Structures are given as C-alpha cells and as structure tokens.
Amino acid sequence: MNNRYGLIYEGKAKKVFSHNDVDKVIIEFKDDATAFNALKKAKFEGKGKLNCLISARIFEHLVKNNIPNHFIELKNENTMIAKKIKVIPLEIVLRNTAYGSLCKQTTIKPGTTLSKPLIDFYLKNDSLNDPLITKDRIELMNIISSKDLEIIVDLTLKINGILKSFFRNIQLQLVDFKLEFGYDLKNSILLGDEISPDNCRLWDLNQKDDTIVSLDKDRFRNDLGGLIDAYSEINQRINDFI
Ligand code: UDP
Fold first, then answer.
1. Residues 148, 43 share a domain
2. For ligand 1, atom 23, which residue shows the shortest CA distance?
3. How many structural domains are present in the chain?
4. Model confidence over 8-57: pLDDT tens digits?
5. Does residue 105 have a pLDDT over 50?
6. Residue 174, SS3 per DSSP
7. Distance, CA 131 to ligand 1 centroid (Å)?
8. Which of 47, 130, 193, 206 has a CA positioned 20 to 30 A from the CA of residue 123?
9. Does residue 178 have its Cβ closer than 6 Å to ligand 1?
C-alpha cells in the first residue's frame, strides 16, 4: 500500500486507509482468517482478493436494487474505495436456515428452514466477545435510536430478499449472513463492511442429495479444507452470471 495513505484502522480481515478526499476511505482486504472470536487464526493466500472482488460485485448489485452502501469502486483486486462512514457498533445477523451459533444456543436442529427470517443483534466489542444483545439493551446503551434500528432491520430484510435470489441464480443457498451499517457524513445510514463467503453461509445447491456442502468460512471453522477453491468457485459463478 502506498505510504501516502495513512492507516486509520486495522481489523481482523481488512485494513482501512485514508483517502485524499476526506469523504472516502481505501479498504484493503487481507488474507487472514479468524474464527470463534479470533481464537482460531490462519492465512489463505488469495482470500483477500476473492472477498474484495465478490463484495464489489454484490455491492454493485445492491446499488442497482436501491440499497445504499459504501462501495464506490475497485482500486485493484484486493482494494476498494468506499465512502467514509462512522460504523455503528452492531453486527446484524439474518438467518434463513438454522446453523452455527443458533444451534449451539437453542434446541433448533442444524439445517432447519426458519418459517421467517430471524434477525439477531450482536454488540461489536472484542473484549466482551461480541455478545448477543436485545433491542432493549441497544436502546439502554444509546447505540442508535429505535427509529434508526427499525431502518436497519427493514434494510436487512430487503437485502435478504435481493441476496437470496442473487445466490439462488448461481445455485447457492443463502443460509445466513452478517451485516454492518454506518452513518455517512450527511448522517444517512449506509451498508458497510463486506458481503463475502467470510460473513455469509452459502451452501451448494448442485447436490443430488441433502448433503451440506459449505462454500464459505465454515470450511475453515470446521476444518473442511478447500477454502480458496470454494471462494474461487463463488467468484467464478458470479462472473459467469453477470
Ligand atoms: N458472522 C460474521 N462475523 C462474526 C460472527 C458471525 O460474519 O463475528 C457471520 C457468519 O459467517 C454467519 C452468520 O454471521 O454467516 C451467523 O454466524 P453464527 O452466529 O452462526 O456464528 P458462528 O459461531 O457460527 O461463527
């Protein structure tokens, strides 16, 4: 990365640099992978590039469907230019099918189709291990107003509809995903972060039986191997479809 740009923030999977325009940032996608609140770590060569390219295509698709988001343009294969936002410290998880932590914390069996999408809120706070929180607790902590939380929930449901059919078109089942939102300089709410197999569960629909074939970060979480092959497959299917 060019030294002219100052590092503003380094997260587990991305670095954020300043841009000459004050209302923009440069986001570099890293090859690092973490799971279970960073208890498990690894590096996968090429993951940053694949997540950047996949996210860029998905953000473009969301813009076409009137979902405001921070993506402006690709700078190169693992770097994008985005609108600067003040990130809201919440992770919004939407689930269509039960899997992962939902099945560890409840009696719902993995793979159960949920009768309606379930939205879970998590507090973005590493020292507290990103706990599951409630609407009332969000209000209590004054993180955002209940009106803005409603806007975020509505956007998340709309994004789910758009992404479910986007992925179905490329033979993938959207099991669940995590979103992050922020405020731009005009105080409008925008979708930020990334949309990639790092934060979406995607199951291959090209299966003859009910076997679950994960083409997402579960390949790392559950030691299944073949993470780069899975992410490349998703990138390829998106490019073939667009
Ligand atoms: N997720 C994420 N970041 C997190 C936690 C979850 O992107 O810090 C995504 C994850 O990839 C999945 C969805 O949110 O698509 C639901 O994850 P879950 O709560 O099941 O968490 P797990 O314990 O399985 O990571």
1. no
2. 101
3. 2
4. 999 999 999 999 999 999 999 999 999 988 899 999 999 999 999 999 99
5. yes
6. strand
7. 12
8. 47
9. yes
